[in-house]
Amino acid sequence: MSNQANSAQLQEMMQQAQEAFERFKKDKRLQVQLQAELERFKQDTSYLDEHRHELLDVYPEQWIAIYNQRVVGASPDYEQLLAQVKAKGIPLTRGVYEHLSRKQEVWIL
Amino acid sequence: MTINGVQRPFLDAYLLFPTVSNQPFEVRLLVDTGADGTRLSPRDARRMEQELGIDIWNLPQGDPDTGIGGQAPTRVIPAILLMDGFAALLALHILEPQPGPPTALPSLLGRDVLSSFALFMEERTSRVLLLEPHEADALALPH
């Protein structure tokens, strides 16, 4: 794709998104609904943080997925984890996905 | 969030991709004051690809990111970011997946969003707060 076509494609997508964003800002009911769902997600992330050490004992060096405060998949392979979660009918857009490891990783981003 | 004794400042957020789907996408974002923009990691992008059917290779290319490890190519998708009553439209950059299994590195909350707030982070109490201007002013902090 040329730079010009690339830029035109992005500009068109941003324009569509801007219109959707304006609609979203007016839709108070959707905002309340999403905020409630976000609270559920926060419970999942809190569950991971609070149980990290126990989970690490059970699933060392594995990827895990947590949804509704339960482990819904675990595998050393990320693609296999996603397949497990999907097989349970849980959307991959939901839940927490994390790699559990005892290795000390230093992140410099 | 504490990982092997290391506390890292994460915030929970929703992303909406209004040009492709109405489904909200749940994501943990690592607060990164050194990142110019918010970034979706390859591992989170993989979930997005599989569930929402978005082929990131068909998205427009963004400018490559420059970091300690060198340069990384990106793709761009419009996204609405939601966090506790805050909403913003972003040109969200996705780090292109590299061959092999994904790394554990997370998605990042960069200064394109953080610039709307005063950031408070305290490891002692595990708090990461994004204060709105009037909340920051009320603290009467020294200039």
Q: What topology emerges from the helices and strands here?
A:
The complex is a heterodimer of chains A (109) and B (143).
Chain A lengths: L2 H24 L1 H31 L3 E6 L2 E6 L2 H10 L8 E5 L9
Antiparallel strand pairs in A: 1-2, 1-3
Chain B lengths: L1 E2 L2 E2 L2 E7 L8 E7 L7 E2 L1 H11 L8 E7 L2 E14 L2 E10 L11 E3 L1 H4 L3 E5 L4 E5 L1 H6 L5
What does this 3D model show about the protein?
The complex is a heterodimer of chains A (109) and B (143). Chain A is an alpha+beta fold and 109 residues long. Chain A starts with a helix and ends in a 9-residue tail after the last strand. Chain A has three helices and three strands; from the N terminus they run ααββαβ. The longest helix of chain A is centred in the middle third of the chain and has 31 residues, at 28-58. Chain A has helices at residues 3-26, 28-58, 78-87; strands spanning 62-67, 70-75, 96-100. A three-stranded antiparallel sheet of chain A has the order 2-1-3. The model of chain A has no long low-confidence stretch (mean pLDDT 94). Chain B is mainly beta. Chain B has a single domain, classed as Beta Barrel (Cathepsin D, subunit A, domain 1). Helices cover 15% and strands 45% of the residues of chain B. Chain B has three helices and eleven strands; from the N terminus they run βββββαββββαββα. The longest helix of chain B has 11 residues, at 42-52. The radius of gyration of chain B is 16 Å and the shape is globular. The two termini of chain B are 30 Å apart. At the A-B interface, helix 1, helix 2, helix 3 and strand 3 of A face strand 1, strand 3, strand 4, helix 1 and strand 7 of B.
